[in-house]
Design brief:
Largest sheet: 5 strands, mixed
Shape: elongated
CATH topology of the largest domain: D-Maltodextrin-Binding Protein, domain 2
Number of helices: 12
Strand order of the largest sheet: 4-3-5-12-6
Radius of gyration: 23 Å
Strand content: 15-25%
Number of strands: 12
Order of helices and strands: HHHEEHEHHEHEEEHEHEHEHEEH
CATH class of the largest domain: Alpha Beta
């Protein structure tokens, strides 16, 4: 079966956008044109390819199985015909998208932006809220070019590059009425806690605490980090964070950082990108920049503990 390159582009764009309307806007085509192309694709592939789900389109199992190969084929053709596959950051006018948590913006975004402004002053960066459950799909559907986080994310076509290790710690107000010089397991089990939504990827800490017999009581649930430190600072609530972020925040807030009284899994800060075969030369360059910047900023040794750098010392 031979497919027209334009039909392949329509297929990938509908897959990534999840709708005919979105694909038409992305490709600068009319909706009837995209619908007609889909009709031809369905006939040639002998498969529906996409089925309606809510307000959008969801790929069929067959569409999911061929998408990586089709996407890679388009990337190879594009690279072959565009300036010999080269990318010049000094003159580029590209747009890149990076997925980060709000604290990830505080800890890592400044270093990435410094590198971008120095190496590619003409590019534009968009930062989207990170949802660990959606990162694989967002990467493969071209919604984001890279993501930075500690929770493990896996999936076909996803590249994980570890840049440092970390551990979970507990934060409490400096003037906490009961937690002073040290935090015991009994105190941790009894004190009220702030918990993070599973979409933030830190539920492993909660699972480990429950297994150790210290589930604790919930005083507040948050789907982001913003506001967490202020609440800890002014109440008797405890919260669990990666040490790197906790020590970054400690410099600007009235909190104390304690070793976690429960044995916790080791965290690995990583950059997530697509496989090279699924990327344009510009995206390959951006993926390398994110990884290299994190390695230089966080630690030269990926196995070394993360520690805050001077670029983090700022008021929240």
């Amino acid at each position: 079966m031979e497919l027209d390159l334009n039909l392949m582009r329509v297929f990938c764009t509908v897959y990534e956008q999840g709708s005919v309307t979105g694909a038409a806007a992305e490709l600068h085509l009319t909706q009837p044109t995209v619908s007609h192309a889909l009709k031809n694709l369905r006939r040639q592939c002998n498969d529906q390819l996409f089925v309606r789900e809510g307000r959008g389109l969801s790929p069929t199992p067959f569409a999911r199985s061929i998408f990586p190969q089709v996407k890679a084929g388009i990337a190879q053709v594009t690279a072959a015909v565009s300036s010999g596959g080269l990318f010049d950051p000094e003159t580029a006018r590209e747009r890149f998208t990076l997925a980060l948590t709000d604290l990830g913006e505080l800890a890592f975004l400044p270093s990435v932006m410094v590198a971008l402004r120095e190496q590619a002053p003409g590019v534009e960066l968009t930062v989207l809220p990170l949802d660990v459950e959606r990162v694989p799909e967002d990467l493969l559907r071209n919604r984001v070019d890279a993501a930075i986080c500690a929770p493990y994310i896996g999936g076909p076509g996803i590249v994980r590059t570890v840049v440092g290790t970390d551990e979970y710690v507990v934060i409490a107000a400096r003037g906490h009425p009961r937690v002073r010089e040290r935090l015991t397991l009994e105190q941790f089990a009894e004190e009220p806690r702030i918990r993070l939504a599973p979409s933030m990827g830190h539920d492993l800490a909660e699972v480990a605490a429950e297994r150790a017999g210290a589930p604790g009581s919930t005083a507040l649930r948050l789907s982001h980090f913003t506001g967490l430190v202020s609440v800890v600072e002014r109440t008797d609530c405890l919260a669990v964070l990666p040490r790197f972020l906790a020590e970054t925040l400690q410099e600007a807030a009235g909190i104390r950082v304690f070793p976690h009284p429960v044995e916790m899994p080791v965290l690995q800060l990583a950059a997530y990108t697509r496989e090279t075969a699924h990327q344009r030369p510009a995206q390959q360059w951006f993926a390398r920049l994110v990884v290299d910047t994190l390695r230089e900023s966080v630690s030269p040794d990926p196995s070394a503990p993360l520690r805050p750098g001077p670029w983090h010392r700022r008021r929240l």
